[in-house]
Amino acid sequence: MKIVEGDRKLIIDGFEFYGKIQQTNFCKQCKSNLVFFDKFDTYFCLKGNSWTDSKCSDPHWKYCPSRPEYPLLH
Predict the structure, then answer these.
(1) Domains identified in the chain, total number
(2) Which has the higher per-residue pLDDT, 60 or 74?
């Protein structure tokens, strides 16, 4: 997996987004560093490509309706 980290921007295997690899927050299952994904205002596990919390169901909250099933779509 190729990771390029810049100022609040990450590129992971060619997928570019605003976020940051956390140095003090870790996945409860695999203990790898979590990544904060700015667009969806939540964390995900890079190793497992899974969100740390379930998708909310509020259609009026800007982050809920558009969040994909997996953080890294490829």
Answers:
(1) 1
(2) 60
Distance, CA of 25 to CA of 46 (rounded, Å): 12
Q: Which domain holds residue 52?
A: 1-74
8, 38 contact by CB (below 8 A): yes
Helix (H), strand (E) at residue 26: strand 15-26
Q: Where are the alpha helices (DSSP H) in 1-74?
A: none
pLDDT higher than threshold 70 for residue 74: no
Distance, in Å, from the CA atom of 68 to the CA atom of 33, rounded to the nearest integer, reads 20
pTM, to two decimals: 0.87
